[in-house]
Amino acid sequence: MTGFRGLAGRNALITGAASGIGRATALRLGAEGVPVGILDRDGAGAEDTAVRIRAAGGVALAYAVDITELSAVEKAVDAFEREVGPIGALVNNAGWDLAANFLDTQPEDWRKVIDINLVGPLNVTKAVLSRMVERGEGRVVSIASDAGRVGSSGESVYAACKGGIVAFSKSVAREVARQGITLNVVSPGPSDTPLFANFDPSGKLAKALERAIPMRRLGQAEDYPGLVAFLLCDDAAFITGQTISVSGGLTMHG
Ligand SMILES: NC(=O)c1ccc[n+]([C@@H]2O[C@H](COP(=O)([O-])OP(=O)(O)OC[C@H]3O[C@@H](n4cnc5c(N)ncnc54)[C@H](O)[C@@H]3O)[C@@H](O)[C@H]2O)c1
User: Fold this and answer.
1) Is 63 labeled as catalytic in the residue annotation?
2) Which end of the chain is more exposed for a tag (fewer CB within 10 A), N or C?
């Protein structure tokens, strides 16, 4: 047998797949025979990703949803399951950042960052996980950030959320392990996507990072889908509560 064992045909919901890492992951999952549901506040971008998956022979549906709104998330989850069937895999990928030192930020800035990067994934996990528990199987992969593992200047509240996602995933992984559900975290290092370009408009940080990263380049969106697909497949059935950095060696955890 070749490929990702048990992955094809497992219906997956992915957030933030209108762009960057999420889009690359959705395209790869679609190509691996996974029916994909895309939740993104950028409805046109989400539809564009879905069109590309369908053009390549896959199954994909797009929903214009802001993940900070639980009722909108629940409606989209219902609609995807009605249309395609039970969700077997969830990829919490949507994220957003505000570049500023902590002392220059205000509570309303924190709330926006926390809503998107922490409350959003909690909303989507809540909407999907209870269904997985009822069925006794499921896979959840959340995209955090090495900012949440080692810290990052100018990203304190975002880093707090991403560290929170790691702790949340480990805790829920313990709660649902006996129901056959795994939760793991993929932790990107700095990567060449629109999110990073907003954070580093001058490109100076990218140049400095290219010197600091042992592999001498930023991550690319295509560096992530293979690991996500692996964590969603049957070969990863005994892996849960883990966080794996994908950072060209910039961060190395024991
Ligand atoms: N690019 C990096 O350097 C980097 C580093 C570490 C972690 N990450 C993480 O990787 C993930 C993907 O980021 P990316 O770099 O591909 O960014 P991106 O900006 O290219 O894509 C993020 C996507 O999330 C969507 N989104 C944002 N807020 C949303 C909301 N409230 N509801 C629904 N959709 C929403 C956006 O519309 C966009 O399509 C994020 O969780 C990000 O925090 C990125």
Assistant:
1) no
2) C
